[in-house]
Design goal:
The chain is mainly alpha-helical. It has seven helices and no strands. α4 crosses α6.
Length: about 190
């Protein structure tokens, strides 16, 4: 993917135009007709450059949307090639555990949802030794529910690493809801 440094390009254009303006102003500053022509010319140039900037912004946004759709398409294709039944069954197990009255089942549901999230992020192609490292590699504009994923993962870490972590049913439902938002963004469930 080609990267453009728009700030550098526009600063070069600005200094070029400024230099030309100063030169022309110093040469033609004695005649008011030249000044009027110069002001009109600069106005037309400013409008033209504004339109060019708007068009470039449109192209960049359009490319970003296209890249995001391609990534989503690849994810859905990879998921459907063999994981659909397993993911569906895993999600049903999580929902079943969520409906239980046993807090141990709630903790297990969150841990299993985090495992699903780890598998999904790895399938997308993010590298890292664990889910936390993979989440750090994600560009927020590519993953709209990234904050939800982080929040849910932090609860999972608290369950796994804090011996007496207390969890009620409402909090469990909220955390599973965060995982669900992430999975639905990527059409994983």
């Amino acid at each position: 993917m080609v990267s453009l440094n728009l700030e550098l390009i526009f600063s070069k254009i600005y200094f070029l135009i400024k230099g030309i303006y100063i030169y022309v102003w110093s040469v033609f500053s004695l005649n008011p007709v030249y000044i009027l022509i110069l002001k009109i010319s600069w106005g037309v140039l400013a409008i033209f450059l504004s339109l060019v900037m708007a068009y470039l912004a449109y192209l960049i946004f359009h490319q970003w949307q296209e890249d995001r759709e391609n990534m989503m398409s690849l994810l859905v294709t990879a998921w459907r090639e063999g994981a659909e039944d397993k993911v569906s069954q895993d999600w049903e197990n999580i929902i079943s555990a969520l409906e239980s009255d046993n807090p141990a089942d709630w903790k297990l549901a969150i841990i299993e949802a985090d495992t699903m999230l780890d598998a999904m992020v790895a399938n997308i192609g993010y590298k890292g030794g664990n889910l936390g490292e993979r989440l750090k590699m994600i560009e927020p504009s590519d993953f709209l529910t990234l904050n939800d994923a982080w929040e849910a993962h932090k609860v999972r870490n608290a369950i796994a690493h804090e011996g007496g972590y207390e969890l009620n049913k409402r909090e469990t439902q909220r955390v599973i809801g965060l995982y669900e938002k992430v999975f639905r963004e990527f059409r994983y469930i």
